[in-house]
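hey so i finally got around to running the thing on that chain from the lab meeting. sorry it took forever, my laptop kept dying and i had to restart like 3 times. anyway pasting the input first so we r on the same page abt which one it is
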Amino acid sequence: MDMLNIQEAKTHLSRLVERAAAGEEIILAKAGKPIAKLVAYQPRPKPRKPGLWKGKIKIAEDFDELPPDIAEGLG
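ok and heres what got predicted. didnt touch it at all, straight out
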């Protein structure tokens, strides 16, 4: 992780953007104090849409019952 003064970052912005796009984190500082971070853009995941699987999944009525052959092996 690199920390650069804002003035230096202005001078080398294109190069810094390429480094960030390659996965590097670059900290921008003002008077030696960190104030911002330059990182690669990560698109937000699409919001979940409830009900997409409605009618496509069925749960058996006995889904939570222990089958006898497995019960025998536990005893």
